[in-house]
Amino acid sequence: MYQFVIKGGVLMYPILFCSILSVAILLERIWSLRRSKVIPNAFIIEISDLIRLRKLDESKTLCKLNDTPIARILMVGLKNYGQRREVIKDSIEEVGRMEAASLERFLTTLGTIAGIAPLLGLLGTVMGMIKAFTVISHAGVGNPQMLAGGISEALITTAAGLTVAIPSFVFYKYLRSRVDKMILRMEAICIDILDLFKEQED
Q1: Cβ–Cβ < 8 Å for 171, 22
Q2: Pick from 122, 121, 165, 129: which is nearest to 148 by CA?
Q3: How far lies 161's CA from each of 15, 58, 121, in Å?
Q4: How far apart are CA 10 and CA 19, in angstroms?
Q5: Residues 18, 167 contacting (CB under 8 angstroms)
Q6: Residue 121 gets which letter from DSSP?
Q7: pLDDT value at 136 more than 80
């Protein structure tokens, strides 16, 4: 592995850094986007039951004790309980946008890595070919060992860039889809809670 990095030239270091950063983001996001950490089922069932029973104080306490995005969103709705539906909806949407941004954290960076890794590989290819042609211009084609060094560098950086970019792009799309589904699920839950508020008022 170390020999490949050395043979690939100086651009192998930013490509290697991109690969480490990509893996770190993937592991952090998979851990942070667990359903139990974002939309725990037990919490949703319990908060719905408390609202149906008009136990607002207990509902607020439950939200405070539950450190999840959906709990923070519903807490705002509970604080505005008794206001017009539009007021409650606007406050929930405002906090919801902030929580959605939190769920999307680092995804842009992962997408950027997927975009720049092959470009770094391409740049390494160009630099490797420049070296190869420089050897040809000075020594001709009579020394294949010197010529092979530049070609080897070109191929290694291309392969390394694509090796980092392809999984990064796949993981970016996977995490993006996962976040979108969670946001839609939270929106559906908030609508259900708003309907419960309406039932309590009627």
Answers
A1: yes
A2: 129
A3: 6, 54, 4
A4: 15
A5: no
A6: H
A7: no
What would the two tokens of residue 20 be? Answer: 């480490």
Q: How far apart are CA 177 and CA 117, in angstroms?
A: 22
Give yes or no for a contact between 30 and 110, defined as CB atoms under 8 angstroms apart.
no
Interatomic CA distance for residues 65 and 45, integer angstroms: 15
From residue 106, alpha-carbon distances to 43, 72, 181 in Å are 27, 21, 17
Q: Which amino acid is at 47?
A: I
What pLDDT, on the 0 to 100 scale, is given for residue 162? 93
Burial bucket for residue 8 (CB in 10 Å: 0-12, 13-18, 19+): buried
Residue 81 is classified by DSSP as T
* Contact of 161 with 117, CB cutoff 8 Å: yes
d(CA 157, CA 173): 24
Contact 124, 158 (CB under 8 A): yes
Sign of the torsion angle spanned by Cα atoms 134, 139, 140, 142: negative
According to the model, what pLDDT value does residue 202 have?
A: 54
Distance CA 152, CA 162 (A): 16
> Computed over its alpha carbons, how large is the radius of gyration of the chain?
27
Confidence check: pLDDT of 193 > 60? yes
| Distance separating alpha carbons of residues 188 and 173, to the nearest angstrom | 23
Q: What token pair was written down for 40?
A: 């725990």
The residue type found at 124 is G
Residue with tokens 């909806």: 89
- Coil, strand, or helix at residue 39? coil
